[in-house]
Specification:
The structure is a single chain. The protein is 1% helix and 56% strand. The chain is mainly beta. It has one domain: Porin, CATH 2.40.160.10. A 16-stranded antiparallel barrel has the order 3-4-5-6-7-8-9-10-11-12-13-14-15-16-17-18. β17 and β18 form a beta hairpin. The longest helix is centred in the middle third of the chain and has 4 residues.
């Protein structure tokens, strides 16, 4: 019986700027950012017909990343431009992610135009804002139910109890990777909306929907429903649940889910436990397998600028020819 191994060496941690602790250049410009480097070791159960494979890939490519954000303020107008570098991507190792201008209308309302991140998804896009190294099946499963960046215009409103938003974009999903939409409104367009409720102490309820029209690269209309709730059980323990459904035609249909706990042992140490799964429907089962991911991971805050994480994840696949997988990883994140 052969054994298949997949492992990737993490890059050395590098210093960079990013939007998570501000460096004030002047009254109009702040710079912030982060750099992350990770090592992952993956071992996949084998079958008699499976050869050993070493492909040098990471389960989460963004485990190695550098982001630098430039934040401009000319009230009531603000703007952001961010540069994002992920080594060894097939294309676009260096990307412009955020590139938008926001006008504060007043009364809690704003209008934003440019390239910005999708509303959808409980897990953060930026690794510096995550609590573990890998994403859950909700974000990176076969369905790809959670989109990333696209270009358009959005209207947002928020107060202490309720916030909501509506976006019209070139496409919700994209054939061009995570960093941009399809770049046109002629053949199809995308729409996103969300509402968030925070009136109950320690509880956040969130509901969002996305819709891509048929045309261009989209062979079918695509509809995504995303629901999540977060509750602070104690001052040290936070829990969350997420459910996501995608209907994108014969080969992009199914549901994903996530259960999450984060316990703060003290000011420096925290532990994450997470279970997530993907259940495919119809012909989508011919291009992927249902699976459940089990994750546990501690984090240690070395200083205000440096955090080190570790993670163990077990992927339990079902279906013909599927292979369960173990993943071990360690990651360092530097921010300022």
């Amino acid at each position: 019986m052969n054994t298949r191994y997949t492992l990737a060496a993490g890059l050395a941690l590098a210093a960079s700027l990013s939007a998570y602790a501000d460096i004030k250049v002047n009254d109009n410009l702040m710079i912030n950012g982060y750099a992350a480097g990770a090592y992952e070791y993956q071992k996949v159960k084998s079958t008699p017909s499976t050869d050993s494979v070493f492909d040098g890939t990471k389960d989460t490519p963004s485990a190695d990343a550098v982001k630098t954000a430039f934040n401009f303020t000319f009230k009531p107008v603000t703007a952001q431009v961010s540069l994002y570098y992920v080594p060894n991507l097939p294309k676009n190792e260096l990307s412009i992610l955020d590139a938008f201008v926001t006008y504060d209308v007043g009364g809690g309302a704003s209008v934003t135009a440019g390239k910005f991140l999708s509303y959808l998804g409980y897990e953060a896009f930026d690794t510096v804002n995550m609590s573990q190294i890998t994403y859950s099946p909700v974000t990176v499963g076969t369905l790809g139910a959670i989109p990333a960046y696209h270009t358009g215009i959005r209207l947002d409103y928020g107060d202490k109890d309720v916030s909501y938003g509506l976006a019209v974009v070139d496409s919700v999903f994209s054939p061009n990777g995570f960093s941009k939409g399809d770049g046109e409104f002629v053949h199809n367009a995308g729409f996103e909306a969300f509402v968030k409720y925070t009136a109950v102490t320690d509880l956040t309820l969130w509901a969002g929907v996305a819709y891509d029209t048929q045309g261009g690269f989209q062979a079918h209309n695509v509809t995504v429903l995303d629901l999540w709730a977060e509750y602070k059980l104690t001052k040290d323990l936070t829990g969350a649940l997420e459910f996501c459904s995608k209907d994108g035609g014969d080969f992009a249909k199914g549901t994903t889910w996530l259960a999450y706990l984060n316990y703060a042992v003290d000011a420096k140490v925290s532990i994450v436990g997470r279970v997530g799964g993907e259940d495919l429907s119809g012909k989508t089962k011919t291009v992927g397998n249902n699976f459940t991911q089990y994750t546990i991971g501690p984090s240690f805050k070395v200083s205000d600028n440096l955090t080190v994480r570790a993670e163990y994840s077990y992927y339990d696949y079902s279906g013909k020819g599927s292979l369960d997988k173990n993943l071990l990883g360690v990651q360092g994140i530097f921010k300022f």
